[in-house]
Design goal:
This is B-like cyclin. InterPro entries: Cyclin, Cyclin-like_dom, Cyclin-like_sf, Cyclin_C-dom. The relative contact order is 0.14. About 55% of the residues lie in helices and about 0% in strands. The protein is globular and about 55 Å long. The protein contains 7 helices and no strands. By secondary structure, the protein is mostly helical. Helix 2 runs antiparallel to helix 3, helix 2 packs parallel to helix 4 and helix 4 packs across helix 6.
Amino acid sequence: MESIVLHFLKFELTIPTARCFLERFVRVAQAVTEDPLMELESMSNYLADLSLRDYAMLCYSPSVIAASSIYLARFILLPSSPPWNSTLQHFTLYKPLDLSECVKALYTLCCNRRLPAIRDNCVANKYCPPSIPQEYFHDL
């Protein structure tokens, strides 16, 4: 039975990655933004890619990393609006509180204070806000 399924799929099997979820989540995030930002997709991809360089990020599922990347990208690029809303919650199935630990871990990776030379070369200071207000993680 397994060989029939594998032959039907032409042995093209992969596990879902954050990138798989990001494609859908970015479309939703841009749909709920008044002026869709091209930077949102780039920033989200950058943040998701950052999770690959830290072993501690393996405790989060790919969908949580993708949703957290959207959350943090919206927080950085759209500081005047809440980073999460009911539409994003509906499509991702995550509440802000569900993402809080992963968002904080991604934020630490993004604004790595331990490696300032790398951060200064790769990420402009405007993309490293001082902190994420705790009230952004309350339920909608």
